Amino acid sequence: MTADARARTGLWLVGARGSVGTTAALGLVALAAGHAGAAGCVTASPAFAGLPLPGWGDLVVGGHDVSDVSLAKRAEALVDAGMIPAPLLAATAHALDVADAEVRPGHRGPLVPGGSQQQVAERLAEDITAFAARHGLARVVVVDVSSTEPPAHPSAAHDDPAALAAAVREPGRVVLPPSSVAAYGAVLAGAAYAGFTPSAGMGLPALQALAAEAGVPVAGQDGKTGQTWLRTVLAPAFADRGLRVLSWAGTNLLGGGDGATLADPEAVRSKLASKTRGLRDLTGSDVTPLHIDHVPDLGDVKVAWDHVHAEGFLGSRITLQTTWSAYDSMLAAPMVLDLARLLALAHAGGVAGVVPELGFFFKDPWGSDRHAAADQADDLVRWAQGLAA
Amino acid sequence: MTADARARTGLWLVGARGSVGTTAALGLVALAAGHAGAAGCVTASPAFAGLPLPGWGDLVVGGHDVSDVSLAKRAEALVDAGMIPAPLLAATAHALDVADAEVRPGHRGPLVPGGSQQQVAERLAEDITAFAARHGLARVVVVDVSSTEPPAHPSAAHDDPAALAAAVREPGRVVLPPSSVAAYGAVLAGAAYAGFTPSAGMGLPALQALAAEAGVPVAGQDGKTGQTWLRTVLAPAFADRGLRVLSWAGTNLLGGGDGATLADPEAVRSKLASKTRGLRDLTGSDVTPLHIDHVPDLGDVKVAWDHVHAEGFLGSRITLQTTWSAYDSMLAAPMVLDLARLLALAHAGGVAGVVPELGFFFKDPWGSDRHAAADQADDLVRWAQGLAA
Amino acid sequence: MTADARARTGLWLVGARGSVGTTAALGLVALAAGHAGAAGCVTASPAFAGLPLPGWGDLVVGGHDVSDVSLAKRAEALVDAGMIPAPLLAATAHALDVADAEVRPGHRGPLVPGGSQQQVAERLAEDITAFAARHGLARVVVVDVSSTEPPAHPSAAHDDPAALAAAVREPGRVVLPPSSVAAYGAVLAGAAYAGFTPSAGMGLPALQALAAEAGVPVAGQDGKTGQTWLRTVLAPAFADRGLRVLSWAGTNLLGGGDGATLADPEAVRSKLASKTRGLRDLTGSDVTPLHIDHVPDLGDVKVAWDHVHAEGFLGSRITLQTTWSAYDSMLAAPMVLDLARLLALAHAGGVAGVVPELGFFFKDPWGSDRHAAADQADDLVRWAQGLAA
Amino acid sequence: MTADARARTGLWLVGARGSVGTTAALGLVALAAGHAGAAGCVTASPAFAGLPLPGWGDLVVGGHDVSDVSLAKRAEALVDAGMIPAPLLAATAHALDVADAEVRPGHRGPLVPGGSQQQVAERLAEDITAFAARHGLARVVVVDVSSTEPPAHPSAAHDDPAALAAAVREPGRVVLPPSSVAAYGAVLAGAAYAGFTPSAGMGLPALQALAAEAGVPVAGQDGKTGQTWLRTVLAPAFADRGLRVLSWAGTNLLGGGDGATLADPEAVRSKLASKTRGLRDLTGSDVTPLHIDHVPDLGDVKVAWDHVHAEGFLGSRITLQTTWSAYDSMLAAPMVLDLARLLALAHAGGVAGVVPELGFFFKDPWGSDRHAAADQADDLVRWAQGLAA
Fold first, then answer.
1. Which residues of A touch D247 (CB under 8 A)?
2. How far is A120 from chain B (nearest CA, A)?
């Protein structure tokens, strides 16, 4: 069967009004209207030309958020921070308001009083199905772009679909962290899903099994946008040269809301773990100290410094330093749009459960132990072309 | 036919007593005797395990040089410069002297008085064949690691094998630059050849045709050791992400003999051209200012700074800076050994003429327009495994 | 006598509509109206509090320019380049138009047909005196912020005031480069003068002597805004520690108009010379390779990389790398305002001729061989406080 | 009175066999014998020429250490690490053994069983006075170069000399941390003292008062060798320009014994506090995240990255990044020799108690709130010249 995803498709953002969600929503409007080029979108590069993906104009944005600051309001803050040009907001403000009208309240606590997590997830799923019906969508892709949660409390039910299905139905029982309730809601709504944050989300094996049963493709986890991407570009290259990495030390400086969240040592734990896992695999070194510092005056800019120390011929030493500086949301947003298009293609092609070939987009790819960016890029292109062929 | 190159093999270095030649010769002794590991050698990485390459102990070093400073003497200078550990020289000094006894005088001028370039090349070829006979070698691989020449004067004979064969026989006529006379000598000796410098060498189409006729495999050109390698790792990764490189500016600082040679604006022209060619192909940008500065106090260390400016989503800007610092000869020497082993394999497998799959090792690969390091690494492994299968 | 410069003062900008001129004019309006703080202004720091300098509201802007693109139009381009916030231009646009009305055509060629350079200078001086009269100014400070000229043709008259006074009166004789005609015009108008570019300007000894005779204070040359300032901060510190600088290599990347001008190898010669002179004095090293590259996509941002290699105890080596990134006009503009205030104070205090204590502001200070930034800062404060005491 | 310190002087190193102690001892031998120049020694710079300081040959090394690995053995490890050239060790090995014979066992625990801290200190003092007698020394300077201790437990006796004198005499009472017992021993021996580590040492006010009473000059604390020195060079320069530092983030990578010690979060607390204190004073910013990572493969090299974000004119932003790389012990050792010479001068000049003018050498200067390196350099020179005049 040949997949064809050229159809109206929903992009449902969990955390729609955050920095990444706002940038994705605004950017989509700008692309559809021709106000901006598609730089940063993988699916706009030549290798994807001609594939039957939904067009920019086919994507309809909705989502959940606990914030009631509107997309346009949030975008204004990003204009003030120098990230988004003022004329671009002016040109897209109306369409942003239309998208904002499709944002529904997220669930704050893990439960409704006296109820079960099943009930919460069903309420979320209803928002998604109503959205699909309202807009006559062929399918919906849910992307979690909300803030990082602390690591989830372990539970045996996380590994067993049947046990999980039972546990979420127990009134008053909290077996899933909030991000996983949202992921479960996507499954109930029959929506494809991508986990762009390090939060548990659909990362629990039991949820992935339920997604496979429900026939929805899912991918994750934790968007590989900047420093980690760069590391997975460089580390395999050292290996290809036979150069042995001795240590890889790094620091991230970031302001913005993400910086504040990650200043919390609990929340940062998930992040640091997923950031160094691939690197250790690729280099074999476990000397990989890494820090994330909240530097509010940087606004939405993220600066990452890395120091690589490697051994070359006859014990000689090599050092490589890199400094990367970018608006992190500007790196993430086009990847979110790419995931919407590619998961739509997967769904159209009948792919169900974890899609390892989407590992290119993630720090901690589900269903794959490939971290090398060039290999992942090859896999991705081959997979997409294969589905469409 | 299955190639098998496990046999005594000559490694004939043009410029044997230079920094790269000395490091390669010393390193080979150290590897063969187990005094050092093979970090930096591509052919020692897992992908090449089990291939029928000559072992370190199978490689015998000889060469040409215009200098009469011995290998051991040159190595002492590298010890003083902090590049080679003193105990390693102590352990290898005797074997270095043995190798040095196989170094013959290179030709200084382009001609012998009253003679032809054919005569010069034949004299060089005789040195190689005598070396092979003396040591009972299955084959010889010539690698040019001499200093960079100024660009060669163009001649129609460079493109036409018959015309070239005639021209070199005219007494008193200088149609080939010195590096190409050496390359021609390799062809006459039936030796495989790698051009590790930007000098013309075997880069002239007529010489490559003669090599193909003679049944010898050749590869080049200009070893991709440090900054250029890093660029061909990074630039394709930007493209894979859909990020548009706007400019890529760089500076190299180096001391040592190479630095002094490249302080000559004539000599540096060849180098700068081959360094930016691949980058422009890979990025589409022609804003690629690049400098090479002679900084004698750095000794054999080379420091390279790059500043990449790219456009991301919605016109946002990304900057990446890299600083690379390494002993350049320590990067080059193991690649020279790799080329000896792999060209021996090619020769054993009956490969004649230009070998595009060896492009991984070169800034300006002959017979190939692939510059992306990851793609080149894949090609190389596939090719070597294919030859051996 | 105690200087008191609290009075209406003209700031006459040669090259008023360039990037620095526009930023200075707009910034002055913003400061006077309280739309912006005075970060970057030396005279706003605590050491200068209470000195009888003209207030921001006392400074009236006029100038010469060969361009007829208005200040407001130029400022729009700087808004588009992300350098000036749009709301700030909106708040200052009217006042900018008022300033722009005081910009008179600069002289393009060195001469009027059939006339002398004296006549050209007198015409320029008349523009200045008319401006002073129109606004009831106590004094005028001329600051040259125009594009860099190629080095001036040497002439014996440049060293001899009498010879120069005669030469400029010869019809058809071109003895002064354009920037020096403008400087001579300032002398004729009795205006103080600062040379913020590397062009000859008032740098000719004969002109400085004429300025001293005319009783006007003058200072220069070539604003020490970014990389050179940083070097004169760091180099003395190495010396204070007894660390011996072996080499100091650097590269500048810049877009904007200045970048285009300096892409001209002739023009860049003046610049590079003044940039390395102080460094060589401070370090004793003459290994100071330096490049300026035009990278248009950087817009008005300037990025400077430096690599310092030093010798420490027992021959050990130290490396320091610095990367500086800033809008160069944003560094220059507040220094132009500082010079206006401080030269007004000097004039009020009866200082005539070269003012060495203003060396803090310049790469190539007139009348001083002090380059160390901390020493210059001390000298400046002491001098200003002394004048006012 | 005119100080004259040209006399045999003891340099008693607490932690003599550590990396800094060994480097200082070996370096002193090399300087005295003319095997090496005095780069890195402040007192060898022109400003100190002609002052009546002890010559290199006048300094005699002894010390305490808990390690029994000899100086020569320790130096071998530094040769292997590439820090000390092998020929230099060969030339100094005999003299190092002579110095090593003057190293006495340090006290490990805070007490001898059943005894008092007074007794411990007296034992240490006896070692020093016997050393002075044995060599006919005019005076002894004690410099603490031992590993960093965890922060000391507070005690009221630390602020009151009489209370302290009583407390140390109570059998079984531990009122002083080990570094302070050593400092007290110096006072009892009538020796001058410098605290080159962040450990409490002579930093307790009660000890400083006892030193003043005993007529010995003391200075500290925590040698300002690399990154912190660089920060105190740069931060005042930003202020002199009116540029407002918004944040100053940094990371240190270091291997060696110091790196291992500082990998202990308790020990690192003292260090990080003294590293950021001066910076906050100088910039007014409290966004100064800083990390120290143990990267064993770096050996004795220390790499420090800083990212400075500042506000310039009209709210524009400036970034400065610095990367500093050096053998930290090679920076520290010459400062230890400088302190020996200068404290000898102070002692000869009758200076007693804290010497604020030696703040140049310290991250956390006693008796001074000046942190700006250039100001400290001026103070130092003026003070030394004044004492000698």
1. 253, 295-298
2. 35
| Paired strand residues for B142 | B12, B193
What number does CATH give the domain D227-326? 3.30.360.10
In whole angstroms, give the CA distance from residue B242 to residue B311. 9
Mean pLDDT of chain C: 93
Rounded CA separation A288/A279 (Å)? 8
pLDDT of D112 reads 74
Contact (CB<8Å) B249/C249:
no
pLDDT in the model for residue C112: 74
Tokens of C345: 């104070």
Contact residues for D80 (Cβ-Cβ < 8 A; gap 6+): none
| Residue D94: count of CB within 10 angstroms of its CB | 10
Rounded distance between C-alpha atoms, residue A27 and residue A22, angstroms: 8
Q: Which residue of D has its CA nearest to A248?
A: D295
Nearest by CB to A321, which of B88, B322, B373? Answer: B322
Contact status, residue C12 vs residue C128, Cβ threshold 8 Å: yes
Cα–Cα distance for residue pair C206/C185, rounded to 1 Å = 14
**Within chain A, where are the H helices?**
19-32, 71-80, 86-100, 117-135, 161-167, 178-188, 205-214, 227-240, 256-262, 265-283, 328-348, 373-388
Distance between CA atoms of D92 and D100, rounded to whole angstroms? 12
Give pLDDT tens digits for B162-204.
999 999 999 999 999 999 999 999 999 999 999 999 999 999 9
- Tell me yes or no: is domain B9-223+330-388 CATH 3.30.450.40: no
Q: Which residue of A has its CA nearest to B376?
A: A240
Cβ-nearest to C313 among D243, D316, D333: D333
Superfamily for the B227-327 domain: Dihydrodipicolinate Reductase; domain 2 (3.30.360.10)
Question: CB neighbours of B231 closer than 8 A, spacing ≥ 6?
Answer: B248, B250, B278, B279, B282, B306
Once rounded to an integer, what is the mean pLDDT over residues C36-42?
A: 95
Check residue B202 and report its DSSP letter: G
Query: Closest Cα of chain A to B139: distance in Å?
Result: 25
Predicted confidence (pLDDT) at residue A173 exceeds the cutoff of 70: yes
Q: Give D46-79 pLDDT, tens digit per residue.
A: 999 999 999 999 999 999 999 999 999 999 999 9
- pLDDT over 80 at C84, yes or no: yes
Question: Which value, in Å, is the radius of gyration of the alpha carbons in chain D?
Answer: 20
At residue D51, the pLDDT reads 96
* Predicted local distance difference test score (pLDDT) of residue C238: 97
Which residue type sits at D159? D
Instruction: List all residues 6 or more positions away from A204 whose beta carbon is below 8 Å from its beta carbon.
Output: A152, A158, A159, A164, A176, A180
Tokens for A14, please give them.
């969990």
Domain residues of chain D, as ranges?
A: 9-223+330-388, 227-326
The interface pTM score, or ipTM, of the predicted complex is 0.95
| Residue labelled with tokens 């005569």 | B119
Residues with Cβ < 8 Å from A262, sequence gap 6 or more? A148, A254, A268, A271, A292, A294
Report the percentage of chain A scoring pLDDT > 90. Answer: 83
Residue D314 has its nearest CB partner, among C36, C45, C324, at C36
| Cα B81 to chain centroid, rounded | 23
Report whether pLDDT(A175) > 60. yes
DSSP assignment letter at D149: P
Contacts with D82 from chain B: Cβ below 8 Å: 82
